[in-house]
Design brief:
Structural class: mainly alpha
Distance between the termini: 52 Å
Number of domains: 1
Number of helices: 12
Number of strands: 0
Radius of gyration: 20 Å
Strand content: under 5%
Largest sheet: none
């Protein structure tokens, strides 16, 4: 019997590692986002808030995408959402309505908080809030239009093929989202400052998006599940917006420390994606097991979740070495520089990943104990914390291993 349990555990770990590695390998696309960032670094100097806002845009977008993918994963397991793109349950449509509404509120809060810290620490003007709002809303609005159908499609496809949506969906979508969001953000910033026509197009889109959200609000504000999602995410959003500014200031500090080293900025989106995805895998599988009664709501239950943690962490370490290898090849610094960059990234992984795993498991347990929906808290907070922690750990690694 003991041998059978061990064999089943080994099969589960191997399956989780394989699926984790498969989903994390999509983060190679993060190198595309990083390449965009490295190329546009000079363009981002047009406004003092441009680089500050970038990690916040990625984090908030990741938080919202994480809510949708996590809720879909849990709902598909429980049967409260059908594996169909169009004809579906009421819960499915209310979730989509809440996601669109949350996106606009996220833009408003992120813009205000970023402006506050920018005025306080970077010498920005309060009037910069107008420009930040314009760029943030158009970037996030476009991301909803482009990324939401992809999230739903990948969730349904993974579920139908017998794969675990909790393991597969968010890592795949987060990377695709980062590429699209990075492109949208950099395009929005450059076009906004390029001409008055760019500002006109930006604000026209923004007003249309606000009108769409107003229509959704008027239709659904009496729906209990819709209101519940809005209230719960608003609580986590307040914390998230504070955390993402840590990422922004840390990224500014990295640029001050190392200058425009393209290799580091090229791998940066892939690093925060990968650590965030490990947290998402651990958090999403934990919330599903809690909902199914397969995991006890105590911090010590992380021992029963150890196989998932080890598999996802091992896959992430392998991917970090792949990133350093590809970045070194692309920038022709394979001799000497490759080993140095690999050590910096390994140190970043060893510092960031265990912190994220512990935080995610703690949040999952506490939200479940207090009767809150872990899908509305775990992934949003984990995503932003992962970005901040990874950025800080990268800064520490670059400082200690210059």
């Amino acid at each position: 019997m003991a041998n059978l349990i061990t064999l089943n555990g080994l099969k589960e770990s191997t399956s989780t590692f394989t699926q984790s590695l498969l989903s994390l390998s999509i983060n190679l696309g993060g190198l595309i986002s990083g390449a965009f960032l490295a190329v546009y670094l000079d363009a981002l100097s047009r406004a003092p808030w441009s680089l500050l806002l970038f990690p916040g845009i990625l984090s908030i977008r990741g938080s919202i995408g994480g809510i949708l993918s996590s809720r879909l994963g849990t709902a598909l397991h429980l049967g409260t959402v059908e594996p169909n793109l169009l004809k579906n349950t009421k819960e499915y449509y209310l979730s989509l309505a809440a996601i669109v509404t949350i996106t606009l509120f996220s833009c408003l809060i992120l813009s205000v908080v970023s402006t506050f810290f920018g005025v306080l620490l970077l010498g920005m003007r309060i009037s910069d809030l107008i420009d930040i709002l314009g760029v943030t809303i158009v970037t996030m609005g476009l991301s909803i239009v482009l990324i939401t159908p992809l999230t739903i499609g990948v969730s349904i496809s993974a579920f139908k093929k017998g794969l675990d949506p909790d393991v597969m969906v968010y890592p795949v979508i987060s990377t695709l989202a980062d590429i699209l969001v990075t492109f949208c953000y950099l395009t929005a910033v450059t076009r906004y400052f390029e001409s008055s026509y760019g500002r006109y197009v930006t604000w026209t889109f923004d007003l249309l998006f606000v009108a769409a959200v107003a229509a959704i609000l008027s239709k659904n504000f009496r729906e209990r599940d819709y209101v519940k999602m809005m209230k719960e995410f608003s609580l986590s959003l307040m914390l998230v917006t504070l955390i993402v500014n840590v990422s922004g200031f840390s990224l500014n500090r990295i640029r001050e420390t190392i200058g425009n080293r393209p290799k580091v900025f090229m791998v940066y989106p892939a690093l925060i994606d990968t650590v965030g995805d490990v947290g998402s895998i651990v958090g999403s599988t934990a919330t599903t097991k809690l909902a199914l009664g397969l995991l006890t709501p105590s911090f010590s239950s992380i021992k029963g979740h150890a196989s998932t943690v080890k598999a996802a962490w091992s896959a992430s370490m392998l991917m970090f070495f792949v990133y350093s290898t590809l970045a070194s090849i692309i920038y022709e610094s394979f001799s000497g520089g490759y080993v140095h960059l690999s050590l910096q990234l390994l140190a970043t992984n060893l510092m960031a990943t265990p912190l994220i795993v512990a935080i995610v498991h703690f949040i999952s347990i506490m939200t479940y104990k207090y009767g809150l929906d872990p899908d509305n808290f775990t992934v949003p907070i984990e995503s932003s914390v992962a970005d901040a922690v990874t950025t800080l750990c990268l800064l520490v690694a670059l400082t200690l291993l210059p």
